[in-house]
Amino acid sequence: MSSIRNDHEVARDLATEAGQQLLRLRDRHGFEEPEVLRTLGDRLSHEFLFSALGRLRPSDAVLSEEGADDRRRLTARRVWIIDPLDGTREFAEAGRGDWAVHVALWENGRLTAGAVALPAQGSTLSTVDPPWLPEQRPSDQRLRITTSRTRPPEFVQRLATQLGAEVLPMGSAGAKICAVLLGIADIYLHAGGQYEWDSAAPVAVAHAAGLHASRIDGSKLTYNEADPSLPDILVCRPELSSMLLASVREVADLDGADPHAGA
After folding, report:
1. Which pLDDT score, from 0 to 100, does residue 172 have?
2. Which residues form a coiled coil (predicted)?
3. Which residue of 30, 46, 62, 143 has the lowest C-beta tally within 10 Å?
4. Residue 71 has what DSSP assignment?
């Protein structure tokens, strides 16, 4: 892989190759020892991505879910934010495709490139060629909200009931945001706790495609912070954002509900 490739291509190619390595690991190891498979997958993908970025972008810092936090990143101009295996539970379950590899670049205060590989689905969505969004969604189509498969926030179901929306549980945060990008869902909403690496790459692609992405109170998603916790997120078509933010506030106010509380 040549170092002259631009950052968008580097993100796409590294996420894709890491995903292919994870598929081969799945085939070799099988699913009889899921905990071992999850550990091996995390390690394999992290080591590949960390080594490749060190070779291709040696002056850049890296923040990885699976690596030690090098605090020099806080003064760096360019930081790669990676989740080597997002959705480890799903990765270790036969037949599941809702897991991903995330590679994003944060540069001078904002996300500038990103890619989400969905290896078991045979695709990578990236800022090289962001998905095209239809100008309008069918007005008679029921809203679809994708949320956590294993720890859905209680308020999401209340919100879905209020909106008459269908809830689509999925695994990886990257897979859920890609579902919005691909028109499988209209909304991704989460408030049960996440970190920067869970959303950086899919948010970079979502922004490039023209989606709305924010905290659930409407504030900006920020990255490369001293504390990488980024506990809640809303991703949706831009024309839905004002209505959804107002609905989240309304549902959260009912009976003193806490939108950050998981189920």
Report:
1. 93
2. none
3. 30
4. G
